[in-house]
């Protein structure tokens, strides 16, 4: 069956790991009201906060554990391939990095909002992700650079 | 009731030990701690390893004040509920995090007067004593700043479906 593209609501995949990343993601969701939002995070218990949306969770990982990072990358790639979002937005960290990387490969527009906790320097994933982000944001004016990341407001 | 949380990612025994000692000294029997599988099991506080978001909200709302690591999840939740919060930052030198971002965040929001900061365990007792006299404050909105929401909306509204760095460079010049 053919899907009429014009009638299909644009889809955004909203990605965050736990704690502050997730809290900050929920604070930017009001900017996405015209989209169908699908969530990707790392804790199943977050599902109840977004009961009306499709929801995925994956194992979290960081650079301390390479094997978990690889598993995470594969899982995220599979979800992106299945969902084919028009936009990927993330507030970090590792799952968001992979989501932007694979999202861009699949033709999505990508937004990275580096966590507000990174006051002195960008996060590791936030600096690596710059080349995969169409909109690459820091929440601190003093960390903005002409070539990115840019400052466009904060979650607070 | 006082609610202590170390977040969902890793234990933070330095904080739990310090608050446990304070509860003993002050004879408080109403401190509840979420310890994320810490090796140190408190003897003067009830505790659990993890709480889900609805439980976190209930405990935080019920609490006189919150004690937490300096994670933004805990800090923003406290601001959204209008609850006083005492934070102690995790340190990279003790392998409690991968870098000292929590120290910078704690200092910044502490200087703004939005949170109470104990930079290390020695500062915990005086900051907890201080927090006993702090009242609830106005809740902040649960949305990001209008500027950030506008930045994202503007980016999304322009030519959806087309990709390209040249386009996004244009967009990046927009609001400030």
For the record, the CATH class of chain A is Alpha Beta
Tally of distinct domains of chain A: 1
- In DSSP terms (H or I, runs of 4 or more residues), the helix count of chain B works out at 7
For the sheet with most strands of chain A, the description reads: 7 strands, parallel
What is the CATH topology of chain A?
Rossmann fold
Structural class from helices and strands of chain A?
Answer: alpha/beta
Q: Superfamily at the CATH H level of chain A?
A: Glycogen Phosphorylase B
> Any idea of the CATH topology of the largest domain in chain B?
Rossmann fold
Through-space gap between termini of chain B: 43 Å
Based on CA atoms alone, the radius of gyration of chain B comes out at 19 Å
* Helicity level of chain B: 40-55%
Low-confidence stretches of chain B: 161-176
Output the strand order for the largest sheet of chain B: 3-2-1-4-5-6
Strand order of the largest sheet of chain A: 3-2-1-4-5-6-7
Oligomer: heterodimer
Report on this model:
The complex is a heterodimer of chains A (156) and B (176). Chain A is an alpha/beta fold. Chain A has one domain: Rossmann fold (3-Layer(aba) Sandwich). Helices cover 28% and strands 19% of the residues of chain A. Chain A contains 4 helices and 7 strands, in the order βαββαβαβαββ. Chain A has a 7-stranded parallel β-sheet, sandwiched between helices. In chain A, α3 links the parallel β4 (87-90) and β5. In chain A, α2 (66-83) packs across α3. The radius of gyration of chain A is 15 Å and the shape is globular. In chain A, 53% of the residues are buried. Chain B has 176 residues and is of the alpha/beta class. Chain B has 2 domains: 2-131, Glycogen Phosphorylase B (Rossmann fold); 143-176, no CATH class. Helix content of chain B is 41%, strand content 12%. Chain B is built from 7 helices and 6 strands. Chain B has helices at 13-26, 53-62, 72-81, 101-111, 124-131, 146-157, 165-172; strands at 2-5, 31-34, 46-48, 65-69, 85-88, 116-117. Chain B has a 6-stranded parallel β-sheet with strand order 3-2-1-4-5-6, sandwiched between helices. In chain B, α4 (101-111) links the parallel β5 and β6 (116-117). Chain B is globular. Residues 161-176 of chain B have low confidence and may be disordered. At the A-B interface, α1, β5 and β7 of A face α3, α4, α6 and α7 of B.
């Amino acid at each position: 069956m053919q899907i009429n593209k014009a009638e299909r609501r644009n889809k955004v995949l909203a990605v965050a790991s736990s704690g502050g990343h997730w809290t900050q993601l929920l604070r930017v969701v009001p900017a996405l009201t015209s989209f169908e939002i699908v969530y990707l995070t790392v804790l199943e218990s977050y599902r109840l906060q977004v009961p009306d949306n499709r929801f995925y969770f994956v194992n979290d990982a960081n650079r301390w554990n390479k094997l978990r990072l690889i598993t995470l990358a594969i899982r995220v790639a599979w979800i992106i391939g299945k969902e084919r979002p028009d936009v990927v937005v993330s507030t970090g960290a590792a799952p968001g990095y992979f989501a932007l990387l694979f999202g861009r490969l699949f033709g999505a527009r990508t937004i990275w909002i580096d966590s507000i906790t990174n006051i002195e320097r960008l996060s590791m994933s936030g600096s690596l992700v710059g080349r995969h982000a169409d909109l690459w944001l820091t929440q601190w004016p003093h960390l903005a650079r002409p070539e990115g990341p840019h400052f466009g407001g904060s979650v607070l | 009731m006082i609610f202590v949380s170390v977040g969902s990612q890793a234990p933070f025994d330095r904080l739990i030990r310090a608050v446990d000692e304070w509860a003993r000294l002050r004879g408080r029997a109403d401190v509840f701690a979420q310890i994320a599988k810490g090796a140190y099991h408190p003897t003067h506080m009830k505790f659990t390893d993890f709480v889900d978001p609805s439980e976190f909200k209930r405990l935080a709302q019920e609490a006189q004040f919150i004690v937490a690591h300096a994670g933004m999840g805990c800090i923003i939740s406290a601001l959204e509920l209008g609850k006083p919060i005492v934070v102690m930052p995790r340190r990279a030198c003790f392998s409690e995090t991968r870098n000292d971002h929590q120290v910078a965040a704690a200092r910044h929001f502490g200087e703004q007067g939005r949170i109470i900061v104990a930079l290390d365990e020695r500062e915990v007792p005086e900051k907890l004593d201080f927090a006993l006299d702090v009242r609830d404050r106005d809740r902040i909105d649960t949305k990001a700043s209008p500027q950030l929401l506008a930045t994202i909306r503007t980016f999304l509204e322009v030519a959806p479906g087309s990709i390209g760095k040249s386009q996004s460079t244009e967009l990046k010049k927009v609001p400030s």
